[in-house]
Amino acid sequence: MATLKGKVSSSSLSNLEKENSKFHNIDDYSDSVWAVPEGGSTCPPVSQQDYSFQFPLESEDFLDEGYDSGEGHYSSGQKNMPPEVNLKNVLNGLVAIVTGRNKDSSVSRGQPLSSSNVSFLGSAKNGDTFLHSSVYIPSAPPLLEASGINYSAYKEVLEADPPEWLPDSSTTVCMQCTAPFTALTRGRHHCRFCGGIFCRACSKGRCLLPVKFRERIPQRVCDTCYDRLDPLQGVLINTISNAVQVAKHDVMDWTCTRGWLNLPVGLLMEDEIYKSSNMLRSYCQVTRLNPERSIPTAVLKGAKGLAILTVAKAGMLVAYKLGTGLVVARRPDGSWSAPSAILSVGLGWGAQVGGELMDFIIVLHDYKAVKTFCSRMHFSLGAGCSAAAGPVGRVLEADLRAGDKGSGMCYTYSCSKGAFVGISLEGNIVATRIDTNLHFYGDPYLTTSDILLGTVDRPKAADPLYVALEELYSRFRC
């Protein structure tokens, strides 16, 4: 009895079933069968396509019944013909799939396949098969759990140490695109994560770095390091960004110099939060001492948002204005959104003279006005009356604001310090400070609309601002 090796085509399997009586346990549908020769081992499933595998044949007489070794196929008069497709074969195939007759007996007993060391099937005492409970375990565990597939790779990145930067003289070309460096068009830039030297085009990405780098502001990295750090940005934003840190500047009484005078320009979001909190507390004190000088209750209760900023103004006939601040929106549930930093630059023309420092509270009375502040830049035009003599003064303005996100009416109330008097027509340009938001939140994809109208969590670093807002609105609940 010889054992032959060859290629079997499923087109001849129906003929094999009729001609060879030495084989048994052959299913009736032609798309997939299992053939078990007497004394032989179980054969793998055969599909409609041709597959090469070792197939034991016990009889040389089988060669005379139509085996063509030159073609490598079993034939019985209809060579290379596709299997017949009819309703019976289709129904038999469906029945075989449902009943499991197309499965290997080793699989039905829960034995692992030869190509895998994992078994998903088990066998009960009554002979029934069942799926192991491990099949129902989620295949994508949380990012930083030890059972995660890429946990070791993520852990390596999160625990990385700051590298030693390569000297500029170590290479004359970009380490990624190999383009030569030039003085003006292609300068050198170090990747903050790996320390390599790259051109601007190959190091455009900004990412937060792991804890050991002691950086809470997104840093420039090369494209390769960006791909490694990008999946971990959500973790880093929620752990090391400036927004999740505890507010450090929260003392606003006479013992703190910065509590006496709000500077017109704040470099960081933390400075804007402190100025706004101090301004709201001062306004609450003025309101308690002189309620007539406060913002009308109906206007303040109906506000959909507040813009709070400090502006320096000086000039004669033509006055120049510059200042920074932040804007927060009122959510439908009554809570306040995360803050967004803004910059204001403007001109005033009219009968005016002097200089003053103004603390503005701009009431956004509808969501159209809030959407205006969601614009990257918007314009405002209005008329105002200003009078300041010494440490206390008043400025009242009503203006129309328009930007690419919409337009709306706003009411401006402020306290001023200095020596200024005049009536003027005011024009301002208010821009969102995108870099300041990026440095604070650490997310380069975060937009102003996400901050004011989205679901961005209130940052822990802005807790003094929310305490001051609660104090401002507490009198409405009395």
Automatic annotation (TrEMBL):
Pfam families: FYVE, Ysc84. GO terms for molecular function: phosphatidylinositol binding; zinc ion binding. SMART domains: FYVE. InterPro entries: SH3_domain_YSC84-like, Ysc84_actin-binding, Znf_FYVE, Znf_FYVE-rel, Znf_FYVE_PHD, Znf_RING/FYVE/PHD. Keywords: Metal-binding, Zinc, Zinc-finger. Coiled coil: none annotated. It comes from the Eukaryota. Residues 168-230 form the FYVE-type domain. This is FYVE-type domain-containing protein. The lineage of its organism: Eukaryota, Viridiplantae, Streptophyta, Embryophyta, Tracheophyta.
